[in-house]
Structure formats: structure tokens, C-alpha cells
Amino acid sequence: MAFASPAGDAYVTTMEETGIAPSPRSRGIIGDSSALALGTVISRTSGFVRVLLIPAIFGATSVGDVFLAANALPLTVFAMIGGQALGSILVPVLVRTLEKNPARAEAIGRSALTMITIALGSILALGLAFRSTIASGLTLGIADQGDATAIARILLLFMLPQLVLYGYIAFFVAYQQACGKFFLPAVAPTVENLTLIVAMIAIAVFFGDVHQTTATDTVVLLALGAGSTIALVLHLVIQAVGAAKAGARLGFGPLRPPPELAAQRGQLTSSLGWTMTYGLRIIALIIASGWVGGGGIQAFQIGFLLQNLPMALIGYPIAAALLPRLAELPALSVEIATVYSKVRDLVGWILVPIGIGLIVLSAPLGDALSIGRFSSANGPELIAASIAGLAMSAASEAVYEIARQTTLAHGRTGAFTRSIWIRGAISAIGIVAAPMLLDGWRLLLALGIVVSASDLAALYTIDRPLRRLANRTHSASGALYKSVAAALIAAVVCLLVGSWLSVSAPIARLAVLGPCYLVVYLATAAAVTDRGSQVKEIWFSMQRTLSS
What we know:
Layout: H1 15-18, H2 28-58, H3 62-80, H4 86-100, H5 102-129, H6 131-138, H7 145-159, H8 162-178, H9 183-187, H10 189-207, H11 218-245, H12 259-262, H13 265-289, H14 296-327, H15 334-360, H16 362-369, H17 379-410, H18 414-437, H19 440-470, H20 473-500, H21 506-528, H22 533-547
Helix pairs in contact: 2-10, 2-14, 3-7, 3-8, 3-13, 3-14, 4-5, 4-8, 4-14, 5-8, 6-7, 7-11, 8-11, 10-11, 13-14, 13-18, 14-15, 14-17, 15-17, 15-19, 15-20, 15-22, 16-17, 16-21, 17-19, 18-19, 20-21
């Protein structure tokens, strides 16, 4: 994509000159979502190691909490101002334009990249100007707030500029997905994670007891901030190379949005409501977790990572693979809602047992994931409480992502907007009330339950109109009830086995109880679906709808 010059003479550029060759996406939904899921598995595995390494090095200390909070802030702010919705808006526009008028796609890409740079650059300038205020707010719940705030001020010098880098990464990912490229965008974060892992280990070895770091240890804090930013820069380089190989010739263009993007203002407004409430909720949860005590924010981060895995491995890959195809269907069509309802029936058989399984296995998971300095004191119970509270959100948030993308492709965003405010209202009330009433692991459990309750309410709100449009309400309820019943039976068996099990080693208990839950669930699910024939019929029906 020739992003170097204004749009004037770009309209006569040929396909060969632009180098754009849109992928036919011949692998189908299962192929594209599998490629995206495979890349995500690799990157999330390395990300999981990265998140576990920080508590292992810092222990249940305020410096570990502050580092994780500061490191999460730029991505959270990026999501809050619409970053997570960038792909939902750009991919359909690019797909339609690349296939009909590649030269026009160049102008859209140039303008989008310029708007991203100016918007995020302006926010970055404000962030740097109010860095001290942001640091004070971020550490509001931490006991030794004075030292924690001073640490945050130093780290934010490196973390805040990452906001612009995330914007560029999101653009390059959207362009690659519009061209049918899914694996590289998903696997590229692995480089960032591995780089930060190496940096953290090197800092711990070189400086020694980093868990005792205070605001006076400036060199240690500068090394932590620089390591995080260098890792993200390497991630950005890989995404830029992937976009270039997909046909993008990188550059900037006019600031004025082209008509194709301007037409998305309604969806952008709805998406901004969603992303604003989502980002504000994450920031509020980080601050509230500080009242738990040392290690609270780190334990919440581990639980949140597990909560996000089903969305990352199932919800987002399927939604990203569906979006280009739904964009080719007529807006406001029954076909779009029908495809969604069938996809949701399918993924429900995977997501429901994940949510219930996380509750049942939260204690052994908490023991197994508490490593290094975090395994002492109350680290295991903090992680277990975080996992149990967020468990049902793990299932509902993945389906919500599929429903959100479907709603944007469908063109009616009323239910989406209502779901945003319902989730925001429940979250606001719960997050404010919980620290006033509870502390310790009970506070983490309560915060997780608030998140799960708000996500379930939002999912019901956005899902119901799509189900009605597809005229599949009765069959959907049957599939949901069967998956819940199968998961509950597996949970009861797993709890009984756990009470009889004499093994005390965390990994050993998890190695027994995890497969036990899975085997019982699969056997029960096969029994209630006539050995899976009902699930297969839903799959083939969805394929027929798409092919027709």
C-alpha cells in the first residue's frame, strides 16, 4: 500500500504497482481461526511465562505491583480510546476496498495511519505532562503510596510512549488480517515476551535483590522501563515487516478521513463507549487490587491472564476469521445473525466447561502458579481467589467478542450500546463497594465476581436480539443447558476425586484433577448429544449458510 503520497494520483495505481494481492481466504473459518489460534497459543504461552516471572522475581511486594500496573497502563489506555475496535472498523473497509479498488485502499491506509499518529501523540503529550498525577492515581490503594508513586513516575517515562507503538501495531495487524494473513500477527508478540523475559532475568541476576527496590534505586527502575520498551519496539518491527510483505508500502497521508472511514462514525461511537468502559474498568480493578496488600495487583494480573485465554484462543480468532466473511454479506441480513447463532452454539460446548472448570480447579491452579518468591505467604490463595472470581467471565467474554464483531458487521448497534452501559454500571457499583467491605483474598474474589456478573449481563443483552433475528432461541437454550449440565456433572466428580486424593504436590494434583474433569465432561457431552452428532449438524449447517 503506497502510503507515501497524498491520495490525488493514487487512484490510477494498478494492482501490480501497489503489490496488493488480497488473499482469497480459501482455508475457510476453521483454517483462518486455527492459524490465528495457533499463533496466539505460542504468544500467550510466552506471555504467561512473562507474567509468572514478575511475581517470582519480585514476590508479594509493592514494587512488583507498581511495575505490573505501569506496564499494563499504556495498552489499557490504548484499548480505552478505541484501540481494540480499530480492527473491527478497519478490516471490513479494507476488505471491501482492496477487492474493488486497491488504489482507494491506499488512501484509506494513509489517512488511518496519520490519524493514529496524531491522536495517540496528543494523548502521549498529555500523559507526560500529568505523569505525577497519573502515578499517584495508579498507586492509590498501595500501602506505602509515597515510595510507590515515586517508582511509578520513573517507570512511566518509558511506559507512556508505548501508547503510540501499540497504535502502529494495531494498524499493521488490521492490514494483515484484511489480506487474509492471521498467523504472523498472532505469533509476533512472542518476540516481545521473550525479550522482556530475558531482560527481567538479566536485571535480577545483575542487581541482585530487586524485590527490595525502592524509588532511590533509579538505575534498576530505568533498566526495567527500558527493557519493556525495547521488547515492544521489536514486536512493532515484526508487525511492520508482516504488513509490508502483505503489500503495504508504509507512510503517511492526509489527516481528513476518507468517506469510507467517515461512514463508520456510528460504529466508532458505539465502540468508543465499549472501549472506554472496558479500559476504565481495568484501571479501576488495578487500583482496587492495590487495597488487597502486597502482591494483590500481581495476583489479579495472573487471574486476568487466565480469564483472557479463552477469548484470545477462541473468541478473538473466530471473530477475526468471521469478520471479513460477514463483511461480504448484506448489512442487516438474517444470514449474519444465523451464522453467529450457529457459531455460538458450537463454541458454547468449549467455553462453558472452561468457566466451570476454572472454579473447580482454582485452588490447585493457585498453588501451581505461585512460584519463586510469590509461593510464600498468601500468594497461592490470592491467585486462587482471582481465578475463581473471574472464571465465568472467561467463558462469557469470548462469546461477547464474537457477538460484538457480528453486531458491527450486521449494522444495528443498539443492543451493543445497551450492553456497554449495563456492564459499566454493574462494574462501577461493584468495584467501588468491594474495597469498602472486604480485604485480602476475599477482595480479589469479590472483584472477580463483579467482572463475571457484568460480563454475563452484557452478553445476554447483545446476544438476545441476534438470536431472535435468527429464530433460534429454543435450540440455543437446549445447547446451553446441555453444556452446563455436562460441566456441572464433571465438576462434582472432580471435587469428589479431589477430596479422596492423598497427593499434596500442586502440580501432581492438577495433573490428576484436570484430566479427570476433562474426561468426565467429554463423556457426558457425548452422551447428551448422541455421540456428538448434534454438534456436527450445527457445524455443517453453518458451513452451508456461509457457502450459500
